[in-house]
Specification:
This protein has 1 helix and 7 strands. With 100 residues, the protein is mostly beta strands. It has one domain: OB fold (Dihydrolipoamide Acetyltransferase, E2P) (Beta Barrel). Strands 2-3-4-6-5 form a 5-stranded mixed barrel. The longest helix is centred in the middle third of the chain and has 6 residues. It is globular, with a radius of gyration of 14 Å.
Length: 100
């Protein structure tokens, strides 16, 4: 888990990393779906306005193994709302070394 930032009494944000694959990105809606590699849970979230061309995620990262860092916004004890803040928060997973 990442650093927790208190915004208000019952609102806080936290950086979280996930390994998995983007399943799809809606560039006009600035939303994404991501399958977490271990739990197979589908994470849905928003794409920050700082990412000028969200469709780059479809072109470069769709169905490829990556590690992403998301900002999770928690309100009270509710479910987190995820946001991808920057393309720098998307890193390729290195393939396992091939046997020699």
């Amino acid at each position: 888990m990442g650093e927790i930032t208190q915004v208000e009494d019952n609102i806080h944000t936290q950086k979280q990393s996930f390994q998995g694959e983007f399943q799809g990105v809606l560039p006009m809606g600035r939303t994404f779906e991501f399958i977490h590699g271990y739990s197979k849970e589908v994470l849905r979230g928003n794409i920050n306005i700082a990412i000028e061309d969200p469709d780059i995620l479809n072109r470069n990262w769709l169905h490829k193994p990556v590690t992403i860092q998301l900002t999770a916004l928690y309100v009270g004890r509710g479910r987190p709302r995820y946001t991808l803040m920057s393309l720098a928060d998307v890193l390729p997973n290195d393939p396992p070394d091939a046997p020699v």
